[in-house]
Amino acid sequence: MSRKKKNQVSKGTGKRYTSSKPKPQTTPVRRTAPPASYAEKTLRKRISQFGLSQRFEDDFERAFEQYMGPEAIRRQGDRKILLIEDVETELPGFQEWFYFDHILESGDRIIDLFTKEEGEKLSGVQWKILEDWLATNRLRLLETQAVEPGIGETMQDLLSGEIFHLDDISFSYHGIRWSVFLGRPLLTEGRWHFTGSGTMLNPLEKPRILKAAKELWVAYQEKYPQSELSDFYRDHSLDLRHIEREILDERSKPKALLSREGHPAVSARAEFILNNDPLEVEDLLDEAEEFEFVGEQEEGEFSGCLHYIWLLRGSSSMPEAPEDLPPSGGLILSGSWTAGPGEPDYYTLGDLYLSEEELTLVCISRERLEAGKHLLNHFLGTRINHQHDQYSDLRELNDEPDMEDQDVGFHEEDWEDEDEIAAIETIREEMAERLTMRWLDTPDANGVTPRQAAQTSEGREKLQENLKVLDFFGDQALKSGKMPPMRLDLIRRVLGL
Questions:
Q1: What domain count does the chain have?
Q2: What pLDDT sits at residue 7?
Q3: Measured between alpha carbons, how far is residue 319 from residues 305, 310, 334, 356 in Å?
Q4: Which end of the chain has the lower number of beta carbons within 10 A, N or C?
């Protein structure tokens, strides 16, 4: 094919852009938690030795199977092998539950028996530590309100509203604001920190675990009218963990991939043979506003081909949404393209590759492919001859589609000049602002836009929960050196939140 120069990015005034792209954080010297005191270390050791003594061997096995699941114990004759998928996270959580929450066959808890039988042997400092542990060692359902790396975090109990100010250094480095955390805040010698292990859920997973926890708490109160939340947490810690496990299992399952219109996403391609001079086909594609030339493909299957992007522009149209929309929870693949800073952006519908003898259309749904074939026949007519269509699973081509890359509609790998790289960052900022403004006027399942929702107290409350989701994933992006996809500050300013 002819080696033509691709369209250059518009650089506006020609001034150098100031980069505001989040830079990957250098690895600072991380603070570590102060070491446990001698009194705390020896007390933990004594509780562990007491709980793991032969006296509780049968209870341990039953508890282990109850906590980890029946598949966690493998029997080989008279031998029993305990299987732990992740020792560092699973074992500490099990030990705290076994010592402090689990009810033995005798009807007692290990920590209560330890207190009764060994309490008199403890020093005054150890006794005070034990008293605090008896009162505070509970697996709680928490929401992260604030995180200060290297300092600590502020957590709120989602059932009681109680606020905990912890100085858990480890959590402060990986915790994210608005994450939901099923963990054990523990008071030790005047310092709040986490013990055992916990799992961080994202705000989208909050409604499910919170609903289940509230239902358990209501039923518990009906059964024990005089009970306190602390009693509930101790008696139902294993139930909460099982709910958490179910959520994590759901998270690990592959999500349905959907086009922006809601159709199942597949790798769909149509092959055409050229009946005329390829330069004639090239000229017609260049003239059509529906297609944008972005360069000659330099590698891969289409190396040497001219690469065009099919845009939702001109006479292009998106396929109609399916009548029965799939259930929520799928990943929507959507991309857009812009010529440069200050230029409009357009949704991308597919890719077109032109060689000396063939033309190939590649889309992410069968419906788009049909619409694209119709459009090509309209523009090129008898100059092309359709050969066949081919469909394959997107996951076979990519282990997991990168959602951020799907949303970026410009080909930055082709841009090497410093001004062009800075222009890319400017485009990212503009795209984030445009996406934000569009979101403000996008109706939800009930036909209500965020602007409209902000006019009522109920709507504002729902918006605050939605903003927690955006804030969480924005912080998650920043932690990995990426720019958040939307402008939370703009949303709050426009909606007055």
A1: 3
A2: 54
A3: 27, 14, 14, 30
A4: C
Q: Which of these three, 362, 378, 413, is where a domain ends?
A: 413
Residue reference for tokens 């076979």: 396
The string of pLDDT tens digits covering residues 164-189 is 999 999 999 999 999 999 999 999 99
CA 435 to chain centre: 19
Answer yes or no: is pLDDT of 224 > 70. Answer: yes
Token readout for 11 is: 């650089």
- Is there a single domain that holds both residue 497 and residue 408? no
Report the 10 Å Cβ neighbour count for 213: 21
Question: Is residue 153 within 8 Å of 200, Cβ to Cβ?
Answer: no
Lowest mean pLDDT among 77-86, 189-198, 466-475: 77-86
Cα–Cα distances in Å, from 305 out to 171, 268, 290?
A: 50, 18, 19
CB 247 within 8 A of CB 201: yes
Q: Are residues 51 and 185 in the same domain?
A: yes
Residues 461, 492: one domain?
A: yes
Evaluate if residue 44 carries a pLDDT over 70: yes
Sheet holding 180-188, edge to edge: 163-166, 152-157, 140-148, 180-188, 191-201
Instruction: Kindly state the tokens that stand for 100.
Output: 């402090």
Sign of CA dihedral 222, 225, 228, 231: negative
Q: What is the DSSP letter of 56?
A: G
CA–CA dist 352, 369 (Å, integer): 11
| Same domain, yes or no: 259 and 408 | yes
Q: Give the CA angle between residues 296, 297, 302 to the nearest 5°.
A: 130
347 and 224 assigned to the same domain? no
Q: Helices 457-479 and 488-495 sit at what angle, rounded to 10 degrees?
A: 160
Encode pLDDT of 459-494 as tens digits: 999 999 989 999 999 898 888 888 888 888 899 999
Q: Strands 358-363 and 384-392: what pairing?
A: unpaired
> Does residue 327 surpass a pLDDT of 60?
no
Report the distance separating Cα 410 and Cα 346, nearest Å: 11
The answer to whether the beta carbons of residues 450 and 460 sit under 8 Å apart is no
Which of 413, 436, 462 corresponds to the end of one domain? Answer: 413
Instruction: Report the C-alpha gap between 149 and 138 in whole angstroms.
Output: 24
Quote the tokens at residue 265.
């996403």
Q: Where are the alpha helices (DSSP H) in 309-417?
A: 366-380, 394-397, 403-407
Give Cα 123 to chain centroid, integer Å.
47
Which domain does 443 fall in, by range? 1-29+415-497
DSSP type of residue 357 = S
Per-residue pLDDT at 422 exceeds 70: yes
Contacts of 451 (CB under 8 A, 6+ apart): 440, 441, 494, 495
> Do 281 and 341 fall within a single domain?
yes
Q: Is the dihedral of CA 130, 162, 212, 324 positive or negative?
A: negative
